[in-house]
């Protein structure tokens, strides 16, 4: 496993981060795995050298944090791992149980620490931009949380570049603890951040950690798979269906995989080919290493619900350069299709004012 600095900070993280939204309480989302099923994945990631783990207070109403915390206590040494968690989305019915107000952030960090079973979080992420709270209040509170020792570093997620820039400028001007990374959706079928966010992060020395590098499984050929996730994940439908460029990109990936004998996930009983075969794994690697190969990207954050998926992802982050061995013609084929680099409307940034914010759908 390769380890890299997170932005200009001194914090080093594994090139792969295990996203833990998939682990928690199935009553929250039918495709979520319970603790017994989740623990082997966390153990396998640790055994492969993964040190970076990402969760959030909203995932399974906090159960994801509890499961991750217990697993890391059992399988790892606290100082050897980097734990990221997030705050913003509703954690209760009250009007102050959401957003980035001082009241909610102070309550949220204490609740997350209790669920994780630790006295500090390595990376505290604001899950969205809060249009209802002055940024002065949010950033002063985050700075105080860092100074209290409860959080080591700060990060942000899924917002417009102009919103992020305003916050960075305020932090710099007032000498506050600074965001060291941005977590945003980035894959072959979601390349919006190439327009503004990625250049901003490069210029400001901010680490960039893409989530959903497989496009919620679409790039792995999971659409039509006989799984609970494929049949119940409405976010995949609402985000990607009806976009011609998405369909064209997915088809280009399918053709590249087929040429190398790699069947789509929908045709496989729990795995995606023999990961030991360079020929069969090349096209699979191209999907997840796309964001990792960008010089502006720090690491990728896949979520794994199949043991073989964990192994393939770990090889992509290996220090032996597996991600760089994707054949040039495979990569060129992906680039022939417009990956959907289109300006977003200003009312939503993946998307704070959408059904996700209102609690109808789960959050990334």
From TrEMBL:
Basic and acidic residues bias locations = 321-345
**Which residue windows does the record flag with biased composition (Low complexity)?**
275-287
Q: Which Gene3D superfamilies match?
A: NADP-dependent oxidoreductase domain
Q: Name one Pfam family in it.
A: Aldo_ket_red
Please give the GO cellular component terms listed in this UniProt entry: cytosol
Residue segments, region Disordered: 259-364
Could you confirm whether the keyword Oxidoreductase appears in this record? yes
In this chain, composition skew of type Polar residues spans: 346-355
Keyword terms, alphabetized:
Oxidoreductase
Q: Which residues form the NADP-dependent oxidoreductase domain?
A: 15-258
Q: Which GO terms describe its molecular function?
A: oxidoreductase activity
Superkingdom is Bacteria
Record-linked PANTHER family: NAD(P)-LINKED OXIDOREDUCTASE SUPERFAMILY PROTEIN (PTHR43364:SF4), NADH-SPECIFIC METHYLGLYOXAL REDUCTASE-RELATED (PTHR43364)
Name under which the protein is recorded:
Aldo/keto reductase
Q: Which organism is it from?
A: Burkholderia ambifaria (strain ATCC BAA-244 / DSM 16087 / CCUG 44356 / LMG 19182 / AMMD)
Phylogenetic placement of the source organism: Bacteria, Pseudomonadati, Pseudomonadota, Betaproteobacteria, Burkholderiales
């Amino acid at each position: 496993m390769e380890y890299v600095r997170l932005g200009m900070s001194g914090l080093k993280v594994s090139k792969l981060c295990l996203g833990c939204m998939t682990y928690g309480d199935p009553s929250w989302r039918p495709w979520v795995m319970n603790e017994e099923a989740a623990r082997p994945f966390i153990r396998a990631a640790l055994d492969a050298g993964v040190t970076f783990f990402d969760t959030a207070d909203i995932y399974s109403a906090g159960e994801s944090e509890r499961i991750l915390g217990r697993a890391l206590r059992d399988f790892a040494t606290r100082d050897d791992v980097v734990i990221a968690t997030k705050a913003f989305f509703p954690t209760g019915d009250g009007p102050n149980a959401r957003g980035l107000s001082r009241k909610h952030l102070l309550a949220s960090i204490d609740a997350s620490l209790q669920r994780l079973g630790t006295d500090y979080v390595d990376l505290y992420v604001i899950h969205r931009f809060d249009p209802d709270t002055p940024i002065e209040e949010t950033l002063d509170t985050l700075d105080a949380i860092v100074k209290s020792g409860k959080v080591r570093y700060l990060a942000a997620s899924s917002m417009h570049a102009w919103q992020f820039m305003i916050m960075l400028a305020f932090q710099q001007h007032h000498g506050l603890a600074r965001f060291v990374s941005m977590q945003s959706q980035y894959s072959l079928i979601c390349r919006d951040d190439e327009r503004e966010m990625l250049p901003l992060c490069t210029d400001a020395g901010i680490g960039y950690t893409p989530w959903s590098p497989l496009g919620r499984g679409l790039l792995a050929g999971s659409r039509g798979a006989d799984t609970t996730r494929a049949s119940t994940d409405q976010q995949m439908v609402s985000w990607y269906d009806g976009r011609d460029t998405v369909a064209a990109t997915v088809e280009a990936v399918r053709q590249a995989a087929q040429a190398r004998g790699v069947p789509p996930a929908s045709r496989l009983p729990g795995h995606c080919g023999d990961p030991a075969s360079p020929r069969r794994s090349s096209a699979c690697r191209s999907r997840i290493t796309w964001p990792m190969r960008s010089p502006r990207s720090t690491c990728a954050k896949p979520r794994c619900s199949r043991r073989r998926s964990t192994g393939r992802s770990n090889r992509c982050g290996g220090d032996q350069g597996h991600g760089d061995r994707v054949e040039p013609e495979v990569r060129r084929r992906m680039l022939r299709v417009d990956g959907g680099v289109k300006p977003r409307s200003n009312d939503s940034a993946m998307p704070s004012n959408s059904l996700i914010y209102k609690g109808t759908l789960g959050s990334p």
